[in-house]
UniProtKB/TrEMBL annotation:
Keywords: Hydrolase. The lineage of its organism: Bacteria, Bacillati, Actinomycetota, Actinomycetes, Pseudonocardiales. The keyword Hydrolase applies. GO terms for molecular function: hydrolase activity. It holds the Pfam family Abhydrolase_1. It comes from the Bacteria. Signal peptide: none annotated. It comes from Amycolatopsis speibonae. InterPro entries: AB_hydrolase_1 (IPR000073), AB_hydrolase_fold (IPR029058), AB_hydrolase_sf (IPR050266), Peptidase_S33 (IPR002410). Belongs to the peptidase S33 family. Transmembrane segments: none annotated. Residues 19-252 form the AB hydrolase-1 domain. This is Alpha/beta fold hydrolase.
Amino acid sequence: MITDDGCELWTSATGRGEPILCCHGGPGLWDMFGTLDPGPGFRLIRWDQRGAGRSEARGPYTLERMVADVDAVREWHGLDRVPVLGHSWGAHLGLLYALAHPERVSALVYVSGVGLGHDWHPEFERNFERALGERYSRWAELREKDRDEAEERELAVLQWTADFVAEGARHAEAMATPWFPINYEANAALSEEMRTVSESALVSACRSLPVPTLIVDGMADNRPRWAVDSLERALPSVTRVRLPGVGHVPWLEAPDEFRAAVVAFLDGRPGVS
């Protein structure tokens, strides 16, 4: 598909039933929802954000442009109002889209997001180092050097291994297959712009958000889950599901529990039978 500014985006629709528009994590990564199974009653709308994966490597890399791209994907698939499911950075992108276009979002599923503030990083870094254990030294070595493509992938797999409680290496290898170059320019630009938006401003905006929201937390996520508390308190219509013993990617570690939480939420919305 082509956006209004001429950027080519990769997108896919799989399954039959009610569509769910997915926003993957990153920024600068690609769609990793290939193993997400929401059940036979749903159709997954997936896409690679601009600059990464199978989409065209071109900016601008701004929050406004990314929100516009979400809307472009919705429109290209011929959808009016749609549930939006976002993971990690994609959870924040889904929230920003719902705030900008609440009339186009029937429900928001906020998975493993990092909340509205910016003070969770020190705890995350401590948790991350502890989770990697003896592998942390290799991760740090790779971070500091000029890397070829094989080392780029090795670094990513090491980093993603820490996102799981069990079988982290296997899950991380699956996430890195197929492999695409990471867009560090997009990551840096969007991460910096996110830091310019205050938590209080987002809390204020969320207080009037009419979109029913499901927050899904893996309670063993390295990113502290208290960071999401202010979002939960601000939303007028919110359900929160906490999955014990689950890390940052719950549909891989606890697929049945994750599917049950999402389906129960979407089936329980007003006006949905």
